[in-house]
Amino acid sequence: MNILVDPGAHPLVAHRGASAEAPENTLPAFQRAADLGVDAFEFDVRLTADGEVVVHHDPVLDRTTDLTGPLSALTLAQLRAADAGYRFTSDGGTTHPFHGRRVLIPTLDEVLVAFPAMPLLIELKEVAGQERVREVILRHGAAGRCLVASEHHEALDCFRDGRFLVGASRKDILRLLIGSVTWSRPRRVAYRALSVPDRHHLIPVATRRFIADAHRLGCPVHIWTVDDPTDAARFRARGANGILTNNPGRLVGFQAQAATP
């Protein structure tokens, strides 16, 4: 079973790779996370102007690269000119160790090829492009190791044919959260796992009751984004399954300790 949908598993998931140590959503960040022994990667996908699926979080390029403007306005060939390590710093801007090292915005194809056995939590950032994401995953025979999720419920429409592992959308999460508060819990759901924050705009989400209700439905709950071992232990004590972290190097010790009988 894919560790991301196993209700009995407690995976350590690299959020956009080891993004505290290398530029987020890039091959160096994923490689660093793999070297640290994480159980899965989480990352975001968007479409280029020519319909290629690339791994990038923001709708614009400004925060992480040396280019500006919307990613969707550029072709893949044009995006290859972007320095995806240009702005990365781990010391408040004193140094930029990946600047000029030809760190690229990767394609989904490249990530699937580079890490052929790694479980992946793939977040679709837009409704458009779901068919292209589906096509890439199927072409690599990777449906069994990819948990496909999105805050947009409609972005997951083409994955609901029984061949894919589908995560909860924002609408699904809200429905379960309201049910946990009002005791009107659903009896079954169409998703296989939930990825949630501890709180959303000061509203508690990952409560003991919410997690227990998800478990009654056979769904694990993964918490983002957790970089402190003390916080990770607190969420595990509530019954949470996966921990999504920017800093897996800081949490591998916690993970090993938690796995010890």
Mean pLDDT: 96
Shape: globular
- CATH topology-level fold name: TIM Barrel
SSE pattern:
EHEEHHEHEEHEEEHEHEH
The number of strands is 11
In CATH terms, what is the architecture?
Alpha-Beta Barrel
Helical content band: 25-40%
Tell me the CATH superfamily: Phosphatidylinositol (PI) phosphodiesterase
Q: In total, how many domains does the architecture comprise?
A: 1
The end-to-end distance, rounded to whole angstroms, is 22 Å
- Number of helices in the DSSP assignment: 8
Parts with pLDDT < 50 across at least 5 consecutive residues: none
C-alpha-based Rg, rounded: 18 Å
For the largest beta-sheet, the strand count, sense and barrel status come to: 7 strands, mixed
Derived structural class = alpha/beta
CATH class: Alpha Beta
Q: Which strand-content bin applies to the residues? A: 15-25%
Question: Could you please describe the fold and organization of this structure?
Answer:
The chain is an alpha/beta fold and 261 residues long. The chain has one domain: TIM Barrel, CATH 3.20.20.190. The chain is built from eight helices and eleven strands. Strands 1, 2, 3, 4, 5, 6 and 11 form a seven-stranded mixed sheet that branches. Strands 7-10 form a two-stranded parallel ribbon. 43% of the residues are buried.
